[in-house]
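Subject: Protein entry, chain in single-letter code together with its fold tokens

Category: Structural biology, sequence-to-fold work with a learned token vocabulary.

Notation: Tokens come from a learned vocabulary of local backbone shapes, not from coordinates.

Start of record: The labelled sequence and token lines come straight after this line.
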Amino acid sequence: MAVRDGIHATETQVQERCRVLADADLVAFLTEDQDLVELTTKGEQYLDGEVDVELYPYPRHPKMME
């Protein structure tokens, strides 16, 4: 994602954002080295406006997950 046009983030920033999304169960890592992710059912429902994010805990900051 970091190398795509219109994405203004470093590879590290993209990895951290994906870890936060995974912590919130919105995406899942498909590989051990966390270089491939997919939307979870909850992630798809969120994008479709079917999930009220106010009912879920606020995602942790990446540094809190270490």
Remarks:
- Helices lie at 11-23, 41-47.
- The chain has a mean pLDDT of 83.
